[in-house]
Amino acid sequence: MDDWKEIKMEQLKRLWEKQTIRVIGLMSGTSADGMDAALVDITGYGLSTKIKTLGFVSLPYSEEIRNEILRLASGREGDSRDFCLFSFLLGQLSLEACLAVCKEAGVSPETVDLVGSHGQTLWHIPIAESYCGRQVRGTLQLGEPSLICENFGCPVVSDFRVRDMAAGGQGAPLVPYAEYLLYRREDQTVGLQNIGGIGNLTVLPKGGRPRDTFAFDTGPGNMVMDQIVERVTNGRLRYDAGGALAAQGECSESLLSWMLQDPYLKKAPPKSTGREYYGKDYVDALTAKANEAGISETDLLATACRFTAECIRVAIENHCAIQPDYLVIGGGGSRNPTLMRDIRRTLHIPVLVNEDLGFNSDAKEAVAFAVLANECVHGSCNNMPSVTGASHPVVMGKISL
Question: 46, 85, 151, 216: most buried by Cβ count inside 10 Å?
């Protein structure tokens, strides 16, 4: 027992002593379309952090697994057996993604020093609700990290959000800390918009410190569009590839005006949202409204696409004390030319994509969790209280050895 303890402590000591460590970051987002894995070399930590991306893969989920994620994330179905099995299933898929990204990069798994795994969010309650006579907040991310730890033999950091929530924060968004380390500028205010299932905005004021950063969820990213596409194609398509279907329709200004009355858009940060808000019930109501008005399926999709762009505009105009000099789009939404067209038409600042800055748009969130894991093992606070509303900085993440 003591020998095994010494071996594990030596692992952590080696991480602290090495100038550069090799880290895998894992992300499974609200779109529930697959597991992203980024392999990076990270030099230093904190403000000295430098990264080099060695590989990236995105392993799509089977239809059966995706449907199970959506079922368990609906808030209506699932029991303790389901959640038990799902956590270990996602742990297996996480391990497979780690092995796949090593293979893609041509490196041996034995050279990996650390893994940061976000897991899959199944429910997120940032505002307290009545439960068993108490007011309780919570968040649930599953994906058993021990399976990775056992097979790779290196530390795995997981379950990041809960520590921030314990300190009074919303446990989201988490990516802004990594964005501050990697994207900040002394001479310009940088806006960073990630468009996954949900849209997240980060603003890095020029020459700012971490506490000057502000960020929040802008509203739906691809989530509403994806659900509409699945419905109108009877499940044949998961998403609108290249925005081709939305490009065939026209935005309904009347429906868009109704959508823009969404109370979430008016709410001041800190704020975060997810499938529990923009899931099936939301799309049911939206579809019913469109049907009442005689709006076609393609026009509905075009309107949902425009709505994502308008959510970004509202966020910048109404909730940003400092306006960004330019906006960098990342995530799957950056691959949708119709959405990018709507964003550029809607905003009055230059709109770039991560590739314009030498980064990979698809890998951005996975890279962020590699960075957050690196901060965790160095004992460095890796939340942003100015973003999440936490009462103080904390070290997020649980370490499996």
Answer: 216
Name every residue whose Cβ is closer than 8 Å to that of residue 36 and which is 6 or more positions away in sequence: 26, 27, 28, 29, 56, 57, 58, 97, 362, 363, 365, 366
According to the model, what pLDDT value does residue 29 have? 87
Mean pLDDT calculated for residue range 353-380: 94
Judged by phi (left if over 0) then psi (alpha if -120 to 50, else beta), residue 240 lies in beta
Domain architecture of the chain: domains with CATH: 2-175+363-400 (3.30.420.40), 181-357 (3.30.420.40)
Residue pair 132/172 in contact (Cβ under 8 Å)? The answer is: no
What is the phi/psi pair of residue 126, to 5°? -75, -20
Q: How far apart are CA 322 and CA 233, in angstroms?
A: 42
d(CA 179, CA 38): 15
Distance CA 135, CA 133 (A): 7
Cut 0.85: pTM above it: yes
DSSP, collapsed to helix, strand or coil, labels residue 383 as: coil
Is residue 92 helix, strand or coil?
helix
The secondary structure of residue 108, as a DSSP letter, is: -
3-state secondary structure 164-226: HHHCCCCCCCCHHHHHHHHHCCCCCCEEEEEECCEEEEEEECCCCCHHHCEEEEEEECCHHHH
pLDDT in tens, 327-366: 999 988 999 999 999 999 999 999 999 999 988 888 999 9
**29-43: pLDDT as tens digits:** 888 889 999 999 999
User: SS3 for 232?
Assistant: helix
What pairing do the DSSP bridges indicate for beta strands 190-195 and 326-330?
parallel
DSSP line for 308-359: HHHHHHHHHHHH-SS--SEEEEESGGGG-HHHHHHHHHH-SS-EEEGGGGT-
